[in-house]
Specification:
1 helix; two-stranded antiparallel sheet; single chain; elongated; alpha+beta
């Protein structure tokens, strides 16, 4: 059964976790799914950090 799970993951650009929050909206979910959710979130965070770095690098260092 595929349960709907929502999660919030906050991490540093180096992949260190700051916050992990998950909820099974339609009932409990297996513990292994938490690992999969965090791995997928870290992959997305890594991609976002790379995009931010590429965009901001020409502006760095900031004058302030």
């Amino acid at each position: 059964m595929n349960l709907l799970t929502f999660s919030n993951v906050v991490a540093t650009g180096r992949g260190q976790l700051i916050e992990v929050q998950a909820t099974g909206e339609r009932g409990p979910f297996p513990p292994g799914q938490t690992k999969d959710l965090v791995e997928l979130a870290l992959k997305g965070i890594k991609e976002l950090c790379a995009i931010q770095e590429a965009v901001l690098t020409p502006c760095l260092p900031l004058p302030w």
